[in-house]
Each structure stands twice: as structure tokens, then as C-alpha cells.
From TrEMBL:
<feature type="domain" description="Glutamine amidotransferase type-2">
    <location>
        <begin position="2"/>
        <end position="218"/>
    </location>
</feature>
<keyword id="KW-0808">Transferase</keyword>
<dbReference type="Pfam" id="PF13522">
    <property type="entry name" value="GATase_6"/>
</dbReference>
<protein>
    <recommendedName>
        <fullName>Glutamine--fructose-6-phosphate aminotransferase [isomerizing]</fullName>
        <ecNumber>2.6.1.16</ecNumber>
    </recommendedName>
</protein>
<dbReference type="InterPro" id="IPR046348">
    <property type="entry name" value="SIS_dom_sf"/>
</dbReference>
<feature type="active site" description="For Fru-6P isomerization activity">
    <location>
        <position position="605"/>
    </location>
</feature>
<keyword id="KW-0032">Aminotransferase</keyword>
<dbReference type="InterPro" id="IPR005855">
    <property type="entry name" value="GFAT"/>
</dbReference>
<dbReference type="Pfam" id="PF01380">
    <property type="entry name" value="SIS"/>
</dbReference>
<comment type="function">
    <text>Catalyzes the first step in hexosamine metabolism, converting fructose-6P into glucosamine-6P using glutamine as a nitrogen source.</text>
</comment>
<dbReference type="InterPro" id="IPR029055">
    <property type="entry name" value="Ntn_hydrolases_N"/>
</dbReference>
<dbReference type="InterPro" id="IPR017932">
    <property type="entry name" value="GATase_2_dom"/>
</dbReference>
<feature type="domain" description="SIS">
    <location>
        <begin position="459"/>
        <end position="600"/>
    </location>
</feature>
<comment type="subunit">
    <text>Homodimer.</text>
</comment>
<feature type="active site" description="Nucleophile; for GATase activity">
    <location>
        <position position="2"/>
    </location>
</feature>
<dbReference type="InterPro" id="IPR001347">
    <property type="entry name" value="SIS_dom"/>
</dbReference>
<feature type="domain" description="SIS">
    <location>
        <begin position="286"/>
        <end position="426"/>
    </location>
</feature>
Length: 610
């Protein structure tokens, strides 16, 4: 969480830094700040509580001149959101920004206070500024001071420092939080996400764990964790430059919901022929691994966890391979048994989720056959540290509420399941052709689901004045209900829960009354009759029902039950399809509630802290 941008250029960089922060605002948005140094060592620091726009207004209203600068948008971990706690933090001539958590900050703070340093914030970051200042007194360079500092820090962080007295360089250290360096012509940049720099460069270098780098206008020098000078690869990015624009949409979330047909087409392109999944397109090592996998262990958080939960049904029913799905923050702290020929699969939009990454690192030591990631961000930590990666091609997702990342993860897993099933002889040509046909048809079906937008908008007022909502589903539609409830609570702040509909009578039925809408995901499948009985249980107790039902499901609207008719589609891809109206419902409820849809309170897009 938190966004970092830095620049060393001949031109004034304040505008570039603030624009970079705007593009990173999804990572944290409770305060923002910038420190810029000019060629005569004048340092201007501006910090503001609130959104990046507050900072932009402040920067525009004064002269913030200079070609070297660092900037930060914050998601508070230590200390409330306030101007005093906003980065950059200073110690003498040193200014520092930081992303992540310094776990031993209390101990370091005590040591630094004993040396006479006075703290002006409640943040863990301020210890870095004082440590760099202290170490610089006995170092030959700023980069050496940062190397010495990094050795004393425990935790996960990306941190950048600038020395007012030497504006020709900035230095950066990476340990657990991503840092990318952007190469310009006669100017260089850095950021916590390449998205921040796409307006100034396309050439990027990702720092590795433990790297410390020095960046000047002409050179970038990288040292690895042992202090050795090292070359890191420079890659050309083809990410869309306009990803940070909302276009004709009111919110990024809305844009991203409507981008799903394209995101799915891109994710499937080159990976399915007319009738088959092209296993090699999943990854170079995929065929060898998928042929012998006997168990799949999925690890993820949040929305990605929900997609794993939905895909579990496919792994077991279509490919005949057992599958467990676990929340990364739980998995990483328990003793687990690795079954023979188990494949570890991490799911993540960002590829930087701290718990998922930690779980991957732990699992790699425990004897999994291979570690695969299904991820949306090329070059992210999960992609680099996994044995192989199957990229979703959803495009940049900016809304904190994940939408197109979820549906593309599901499409990716369905392709993977199909490959496993075929390679292991459990899916024949005919079945494979049926699945692939459903995948080919999916984008058009999602377009169709999007046309329900107005109808769903009309339902939203029924939810916006309520405090609770219950989502019900059965089978693979239970995780779809889970995802629907996560979306609603996340952006509308309405408490929502998902239940496997068969579980109702084991407790939640007691909650049913006219004040709690009950949303039912009701495709036409083998469980439909069972689901109908569950719906009756709610109806008999005066519950208000909103049933998203297949056109042939046979539900009839009445006073306590509204039906949203969904055109019939293949049972196989229906979980992906039924996700879309749920996303639209949350979106419209949030609009009525007037919440900050793209940047809901207390959340951030990439959860890079534990
Ligand atoms: O980037 P990841 O997919 O690893 O992120 C995991 C969760 O933090 C994320 O899905 C979160 O739950 C979303 N905000 C939900 O919309």
C-alpha cells in the first residue's frame, strides 16, 4: 500500500510527481506529500491531508521548483492520517518516503531518541529518515548510508531518500515492497508501480529483494543484498497509457465492469483454439506439470480467494483433481501437509499482496511439485518468484473493488482445468469442445448481462437504506454469492453476508425479516430445485427476495420476490456470467449511498503490508 514516485531530471519535476501520485492514488489515499530540491539545494516540502488533489492544489498555488524529487500517497499503518504523519519525513537534510511496515521501529526509535533525534510524527517511516541522516555522517555516499540503514530495518518496505545538499541523485531500497525504475532520456524515475511513470517512459527495471539503487539523471546503479554491484534487466512495457483515465465512465469500477468482455477476450486470446485449450500457452512448463498434478492448493486473499473457491468446483468436477483453497494469511501461519504431486497456485490481481507472497515463499520450501501464479501484473513479485505464471490480461485495474480481475481469473482457471482434465484423460475431445465453445461465447454473454444495468439500477434503492444484505447461492454459485457480498460491503459499507443456501436453516434463517434483502443467485442447474426450497424458506418468513434467475428457472415474481431474468447460458461459464449483475448491484447501491466508489474508506488496492 502507499504509492511512491521519484524523479531526477533537468526539468522541474513537481508536476510529474503529482501526476504519478494521481495514478497511484488507488494504493492509498489518506494524505500525500512531495519534496523537491533544486540545483541550489533549496528543498520544498508540501504535504496535505486527504486526496492527491489537495496536494496538487497546494503545489499549484506555490513555486515548487527543482529537478529532483520524491513523492508519496499514504495508506496509514502507524499514526492517524494527518499532515504531520504524511510523507516525506525529514531528518536534517534528508527527506524520505516509504511504503510498507518497519516492524522494529519502536526499538529503533528508542535508539535514535537516545542519540538526540526528535520525532515529529507517529510513523514508523521517520526512523528511516533519522537512520539515513545518522549513517550519512560516517558514509562516503548517500547510497552507502541507505545500505547501512537497510541492514537495520526489519519488515517489508520500499523506501526512497534524497539529500538536500546533493540534488543530483535519489537512492532507493527494496525489501518486500515493489520498486520499479523508469529510464528516460537524460532523466530517470522510480515508482512503486510502473503505472505512475507511463506518461514519461516505457523502459523499466524491477528491483529485486534486498536491492539498493542510486539514480542520477544519467545512470542507475544497483547493488544486490550482499552489496555487490549488479545488472538488472530492462524491459519494455506495453501497458496502456490511458489506463489511468476513466474515459466516459463516472468511476473506474464502472469502467472496469464494462471492460470485462474485452478483458476476457484478451485473457483467452491465443490460449484457446476453436475447440481446445492450448496448454503450452499456459506456460512453458505447464504441460509437464499439469499432466502429473494430483492436487491443487490455491492460496489467495479477498476477491482472488473467492475466485479460487469458485474454481475449486471445476477442478474437482471437470478435471477430477482434488483442490483446496485457503486464505493466505491463515495458510502462512499454520502447519500444513503437502500431498504428493501437489501444485501450489497463488491467485492475485496485483501480484504484490503481502500475505500471498509470504505464503508462496513459505510453500516453496515445503516440497510442492511446482508453484504457479495466476496474476494480472507482469513483473510483479508473485510472477517473478513463482515457477511459472499464467497471466490474466484484464488490463490495469484501478478501482479498489476488484471486478475484471475476478472474472478473468475464473476464465484462466477454467482453461487450466480443461487442460488438466484432457492431459489426464478425464475430459474427452467432445467435453473440451463444449467448454471451449462456452468460453468463446462468454464475452458476448457478458455484454448481454451488462445490458441489465438499468434494471439493476432501479433495484438499488431497495438496498441503499438497509443495514444488512444476505446473498445466497449453491455449489459454485456460493462463492459467487461470497464475492457479491464482499463487493457490497466494500463499496457501500452495508453489512453483507453470503451463505450456501442449504445452510440457511442452520442459523441464518433467524435473521430473516423485511429489513434484510436476500439476493439469490439462481442459474438453471442440478441444484435448482433445492435452491427453490431454500427460497421458499425465506419467503415463508417474510423475507424480501431478489432472485437473479435463469430465464427457464421457473420463478414467479410476487410481492415479496423480485425476479431479474438472466438469459440462459452454458452451465460451465455461468458463475462468471452471474458475477456481473452482482457487481452492478453493488455499484448502484454505492452510488446512492454517496460513498467513494473507487477508493472506499480504510482500503487500498494492493495490500503490500501484512
Ligand atoms: O491483488 P490481490 O488479488 O492479491 O488482492 C487481494 C485482495 O486484497 C483484493 O482482492 C481485495 O479483496 C479487493 N479489494 C476486493 O475487491
Amino acid at each position: 500500500m502507499c504509492g511512491i514516485v521519484g524523479a531526477v531530471a533537468q526539468r522541474d519535476v513537481a508536476e510529474i510527481l503529482v501526476e504519478g501520485l494521481r495514478r497511484l492514488e488507488y494504493r492509498g489515499y489518506d494524505s500525500a506529500g512531495v519534496a523537491v530540491v533544486d540545483g541550489e539545494s533549496n528543498l520544498t516540502r508540501v504535504r496535505r491531508l486527504g486526496k492527491v488533489q489537495e496536494l496538487a492544489d497546494a503545489v499549484n498555488s506555490q513555486d515548487v521548483l527543482g529537478g529532483t524529487g520524491i513523492a508519496h500517497t499514504r495508506w496509514a499503518t502507524h499514526g492517524e492520517p494527518s499532515e504531520a504523519n504524511a510523507h516525506p519525513h525529514m531528518s536534517g537534510d534528508i527527506a524520505v518516503v516509504h511504503n510498507g511496515i518497519i516492524e522494529n521501529h519502536e526499538e529503533l526509535r528508542a535508539t535514535l531518541q537516545a542519540r538526540g533525534y526528535v520525532f515529529t510524527s507517529q510513523t514508523d517511516t521517520e526512523v528511516i529518515a533519522h537512520l539515513v541522516e545518522w549513517e550519512l555522517r560516517t558514509s562516503e555516499s548517500l547510497v552507502e548510508a541507505l545500505q547501512k540503514t537497510a541492514k537495520q530495518l526489519e519488515g517489508a518496505y520500499g523506501t526512497v531518500a534524497v539529500d538536500r545538499k546533493d540534488p543530483s541523485r535519489i537512492v532507493v531500497a527494496r525489501s518486500g515492497s515493489p520498486i520499479v525504475i523508469g529510464f528516460g532520456v537524460g532523466e530517470n524515475f522510480l515508482a512503486s508501480d510502473q503505472l505512475a511513470l507511463l506518461s514519461v517512459t516505457r523502459r523499466f527495471m524491477y528491483l529485486e529483494e534486498g536491492d539498493v539503487a542510486e539514480i542520477t539523471r544519467r545512470d542507475v546503479t544497483v547493488f544486490d543484498a550482499t552489496g555487490e554491484r549488479i545488472e538488472r534487466e530492462i524491459v519494455e512495457s506495453n501497458a496502456e497509457h490511458d489506463a489511468g483515465d476513466k474515459g466516459k465512465y463516472r468511476h473506474f469500477m464502472q469502467k472496469e465492469i464494462f471492460e470485462q468482455p474485452t478483458a476476457l477476450i484478451n485473457t483467452m486470446e491465443g490460449r484457446i483454439s476453436e475447440t481446445a485449450v492450448i496448454t503450452n500457452a499456459i506456460g512453458v512448463k505447464a504441460e509437464e506439470i499439469l499432466r502429473k498434478v494430483e492436487h491443487v492448493q490455491i492460496i489467495a486473499c479477498g476477491t482472488s480467494y473467492n475466485s479460487g473457491m469458485a474454481a475449486r468446483y471445476w477442478f474437482e468436477s471437470l478435471a477430477g483433481v482434488s483442490c483446496d483453497v485457503e486464505i493466505a494469511s491463515e495458510f502462512r501461519y499454520r502447519d500444513f501437509v503437502v500431498r504428493p504431486n501437489s501444485l501450489l497456485v497463488t491467485l492475485s490481481q496485483s501480484g504484490e499482496t503481502a500475505d500471498t507472497l509470504a505464503a508462496l515463499r513459505l510453500a516453496k520450501e515445503k516440497g510442492y511439485m511446482s508453484a504457479m501464479t495466476i496474476c494480472n501484473v507482469a513483473g510483479s513479485s508473485l510472477v517473478r518468484e513463482s515457477d511459472f505464471a499464467f497471466m490474466t490480461r484484464a488490463g490495469t485495474e484501478i478501482g479498489v473493488a476488484s471486478t475484471k480481475a475476478f472474472t478473468t481469473q475464473l476464465a484462466a482457471m477454467l482453461m487450466m482445468v480443461t487442460s488438466i482434465g484432457r492431459l489426464q484423460g478425464r475430459i474427452n475431445d467432445e467435453k473440451e469442445a463444449e467448454i471451449v465453445k462456452a468460453l468463446h461465447e462468454l464475452p458476448a454473454h457478458i455484454e448481454q448481462a451488462l445490458t441489465l444495468d438499468k434494471e439493476i439500477e432501479a433495484l438499488a434503492p431497495d438496498f441503499a437504506d438497509k443495514h444488512h444484505t444476505l446473498f445466497l447461492g449453491r455449489g459454485e454459485f456460493y462463492p459467487i454469492a461470497m464475492e457479491a457480498s464482499l463487493k457490497l460491503k466494500e463499496i457501500s459499507y452495508i453489512h453483507a453476508e453470503a451463505y450456501a443456501a442449504g445452510e440457511l436453516k442452520h442459523g441464518p434463517l433467524a435473521l430473516i425479516d423485511a429489513d434484510m434483502p436476500v439476493v439469490v443467485v439462481a442459474p438453471s442447474n442440478d441444484l435448482l430445485e433445492k435452491l427453490k426450497s431454500n427460497v421458499e424458506e425465506v419467503r415463508a418468513r417474510g423475507g424480501l427476495l431478489y432472485v437473479f434467475a435463469d430465464q427457464d428457472a421457473g420463478f414467479e415474481a410476487d410481492e415479496g420476490m423480485k425476479i431479474i431474468t438472466m438469459p440462459h447460458i452454458s452451465e460451465i461459464t455461468a458463475p462468471i456470467y452471474y458475477t456481473v449483475p452482482m457487481q452492478l448491484l453493488s455499484y448502484h447501491v454505492a452510488l446512492i449511498k454517496g460513498t467513494d466508489v473507487d477508493q472506499p474508506r480504510n482500503l487500498a488496492k494492493a495490500v503490500t503490508v501484512e
